[in-house]
Structures are given as C-alpha cells and as structure tokens.
Amino acid sequence: KNEVEQSPQNLTAQEGEFITINCSYSVGISALHWLQQHPGGGIVSLFMLSSGKKKHGRLIATINIQEKHSSLHITASHPRDSAVYICAVEINNDMRFGAGTRLTVKP
Amino acid sequence: NAGVTQTPKFQVLKTGQSMTLQCAQDMNHNSMYWYRQDPGMGLRLIYYSASEGTTDKGEVPNGYNVSRLNKREFSLRLESAAPSQTSVYFCASNIAGNYGYTFGSGTRLTVV
Question: Could you give the CA distance from residue A9 to residue A15 in angstroms, rounded to a whole number?
C-alpha cells in the first residue's frame, strides 16, 4: 500500500467550479508538499505545509496532522488550472509521492 | 534564469549502453535529488545528496550511480541501461528547512 494516497485519481470540472483534491498519508512526516505538473511535464512546487493552512491566489492548502490528511482547494477554477496535482510527504531526508490527481477544467 | 537545469531532455538508448544525466542548480541549494516517474506511480527517489561530498541511496537505487561533483552539479549515471529504466527522470534541489523544492524540466529516457 502506498504511503501517500490521493483522491480522486481523475477530476473533470467546469470553469468556475470549486475544486478539492485530497491526500492521506500513513506515516509520521515533517512536512507535506503540493506540486503541480503541467501537461508539458514540468513540476512546480505550490505549497509546503507542516500545520494549518496556506493560501496563494486561488489556491488553498490545509493539513490536519492528527488525521494525517491534507486538502488542496482551487476556487473559481479555470482551464489553465488543468494539470496533475501531486501530494508528497517528507520523511527524514526522503520524500514519498502520491500518484497524482489529473484535473481537467473545461471552459 | 535561476533554477534547475537538466540535460538532455530526451534520450534513446540501446540495452547495455551507458549514459550520464546532468543536473545543475544555481540557487546555492545544499540538497539535490534524482527521481524517476513511471506511469500510474508517484515519483520515486533514486539517490540524493544532502550536501556537497555526500550521497545516499533512495527507494530505487539499483542500476544507478551518482556523483555530487560540486555544490551546483549532481549527475546520474546508468552503467548498463535496461528496458526497466525507461522512465522520466527529474532532478530537484532545496535548502534543508522550511522551503519548497525546485524541479528540473525532466529527461525522458527510453531504453530499447
């Protein structure tokens, strides 16, 4: 069983919808990351969290350490948000990655 | 532009051939990493280097070697490529502590 589980695997939304992507992990971590992988393959770091909530523009990331769960929210989604969103957890000097959530936002 | 530069972007190898993937960062980051990404799976750590002069195995090190040539450069070598090493390889770097990672643009390697 993967240490990091993301849901859903695939998500299709209409432009303007509120999006939630979930990440659950099974081990103790020092931090959690949300990454965005563009259709061209490049990976961009969106958030690094060890507690609470962070917001950047239309993106919001939350983490509940006790429940070992994190969510990534996108408000007012747009077709340019279409990408694969990856959750990753830091364990000592290692990072373990979820398989990603493929988001498609239709105009 | 500041960031992580990987070369080459694409490569096709025959089984048994060797090659080195190059990675360089100009952000003065201490730590550097090599990952592979396979369809339907998360990125998996091959090797990492926490600082210049040190390297450690990750989750899937077999068939690979690395060199941390200096603070900027961290190379990944395949001594005898196998079809199972067909993958997309990403180099990344960060400063230890509460900072995010910066990824290279990836190398798509096919071994036939």
Answer: 19
